[in-house]
Amino acid sequence: MPSRQNLLGLWLLLTGVCVLLGLAALIWLESTVPADVGPRALLWGLCLAPAALALLAGVWLEKRLFRPLRQFQILLARLVASPDARHDYPLEGWLQGLQPDLDHIREGWRRDRARVQDAHDQGALTASRIRQQLEALLQVLHTPLLICDRHQRLLLFNPAAQALFHDHPALGLGKPLSLLLPHPSLSEALQHLPDEGTPQQLLLPGEQHWLRCQIRALGGDQGGALISLDDTTRALEHDQRWRRTLAQLLPRLRGHCGSLNSATDALLQVQDNLDLQQRLERAIHQESQALAGQVEQLTRLVEAHQLSQSMLEETWSNDLCHALRAQLKPQRIELTPVGIPAWMRVDGPGLLALLQQLIRQLHNTQNIRHLELEVLLGNRRVYLDLSWRGAPLNEQQLQQWRRLPLFDEPLSPRIEDVLEQHGADLWSLPSEQPDQQPRLRLPLPASARGMQPRVRPPARPEFHDFSIADLPPPGEDLATRPLQQLEMVVFDTETTGLDLRGGDAIISLAGCRIVNGRLLADDSFDQRVNPGRAIPAQSTAIHGLTDADVAQSPPIEIVLPRFRQYVGEGVLVAHNAAFDLLALQLATGTDHPAFGMPVLDTLLLSRALDPSLEGHGLDALAERFQLQFPPGTRHTALGDARVTAELLLMLLPRLASRGIHTLGDALALQRRIEQDASA
């Protein structure tokens, strides 16, 4: 059907022609017919009647036929794009009689889809139970796990891996593993894994972590590998520090032992030289003292090394307090927890022994039998306070207590070893007010969990999709790849204004991913950007962002490489993509930006599918296909990107019905629309 503008133009043209012909006929009749022949009004009416009839016919046809046809077109487009959509408006005009048939077709289609879905749900019940059990297991597993297919695309990652790579934009289903762990040794090991499942070990260096990696081949048609990771950064640092100190001590010990041997041999040979004998004895005494000092230092190193093997674990302060109360009960010492409990990262057994030793010393020196334990949250630290009624401790006492062993055993670690393990120290805080008790403060590493003892994971996390392994290999030509099998990143930008070449810049950049025809709920990129210039008030009125909102945000030079990592090898999608691509291109500062991948534009695709309909803006299309913006998300980069992604998924079946199946087909369709618009 022609567009409304074309029909309106034809109607006005026909009406204008009728008016001109009527006026021409009227002028001719006025010049040829005598004035006394017939009424002049009838003559005027006959001449202008065709124009009036054309005008009335256009209005009547618009109301009875053309507007109902456009409604019918929208209803069909919505039925194909979203068969389960509701609240459709009824047909009007001459098409009103088709309403029962259309309702019957629509309801029949929906019933058939519901029956197919029920059958699918029943058949997949067992698989659903297995999947839920797998998800429950992965939720509580603390070891980071990754599963990739034979093409090294991520099929699964558990919450522990998500926490390990929480700030890495390359973590996502279907993304190449090489973007997340860019180590040639890992890629080589994955290509030569033993088929019988023998694990291989690798140590992978990173920017902030040393990861011990265990790789095991998976059986089945999909191939691939299971990768378990262990952050060994802290253990390696402890080990290197211990080895470094040991490497310094051993040569000194050898030197002192060698000097003692030489001096002893010389002393045995100079029995008749008293002066030389005295000098040798002094040398032996000095070397013996130095050797004793080095042996003491070696002993201290071995004692401290016992704690260096212990990792700091997440510990709930109330659990530590209950264990300490049980240890103090035989000594009839009462410990009362006060304040709000919190999480902290400590070596539980070592800290428990330290607190027990400190309380024992307080009991021995001041006969303290009742103490209070309070946990206070600080900046990246948790302050553990022991308070009592009595005299405060001085620094000399604390210095003596720091050297006390934790246990009555040889080579027992000391209090200062536990303090060093936690990067902490002991502070004595005297009472500043008459009703305040003296305290002994121990600053400890805080936990990222905050003050809640339990964190419930999301009910349905998006961390696995094994159907990705059935997709074509990454090296295949994207132009021949079916649209449903593409990895697509739908993105949007918010800017300081619309004049990008005049200096307006990006202030917000966001994207979401579609993998295997599915929009991933929890996989998104959302970052505000400091544009380095003021945001005009008229722009703030649209997107709501002010200078204060982006003042602490990173510049585009930092954000853009991270977004490029997030895009990976995906195809970009945007609504009115020309504007957003220009913003990215100008931000890169080069005519050859890093974003050279294919781009799909939902605006051009919508115009190609419905050239006769008006309104292809995001708001108009969201209303046409009944897409909802969550409150407060319109004109936000992530909110617009998500709705654009949902719109694209609705356009895909309509493109398929017109023979547009591959990325090359869609790009060719977009080029035709652009050429028609510029012609």
UniProtKB/TrEMBL annotation:
A single Pfam family it belongs to is PAS_4
- Keywords in alphabetical order: Hydrolase, Membrane, Nuclease, Transmembrane, Transmembrane helix
Membrane-spanning segments: 7-29, 41-61
| Ranges for domain Exonuclease | 487-657
Asked if the keyword Metal-binding belongs to this entry, the reply reads: no
Superkingdom of source: Bacteria
What is this protein identified as?
DNA-directed DNA polymerase
Q: Which organism is it from?
A: Marinobacterium weihaiense
